[in-house]
Write the structure tokens for this entry.
Amino acid sequence: MNREAGRSLKKLRTQKKITLEGLSKETGLSVGFLSQFERGLTSIAIDTLEKIAAVFEVGIDYFISPPKKTDSSVILKSHALEVSDIISSNIILRTMNNNIADKALYPRLIEILPLAHEEDITTYTHEGEEFIYVLEGILTLLHKDREYSLYPGDSAHYLSTDEHNWTNKTNKVVKFLCVSVPNPLHK
């Protein structure tokens, strides 16, 4: 994920004619770190990626590359589900669609692994709306100024323009479906 996300950042930064120094001032991140990230030499935390996304007014999904195209655009067998990206050290994302670039919905299977220590989670906004459905574990959803614990079978549907984020505050894996619109990879 780091290499693809770094390339996406460099391309976007170049298109918007923003220098590394300018981006550094906007985000509070060092020029050296940003340069290393663009070259795929360092990992990035999701909240740090959110800071960068906010500067460009895009969702963090912008930095995630689409999965490989396959012959079938209708059915995706469970054995063919591949890891599309690893965000930070504890979030694994699998895109649940073939040929995702020509679809309006952006369906993902997300796993959040437990962390050794609790992190500060920053909420963010982006265009569209999201629907989440918890499959396994206890997902903590931050929405506006509230925190919700969602258990298997629980769901949430909200506008992405509302401040939001999710995290795992337990010592078990959390697995959930997330479907959002618009699809940031849609062409």
About this structure: The two ends are 21 Å apart (CA to CA). Helices lie at 2-15, 20-27, 31-38, 46-56.
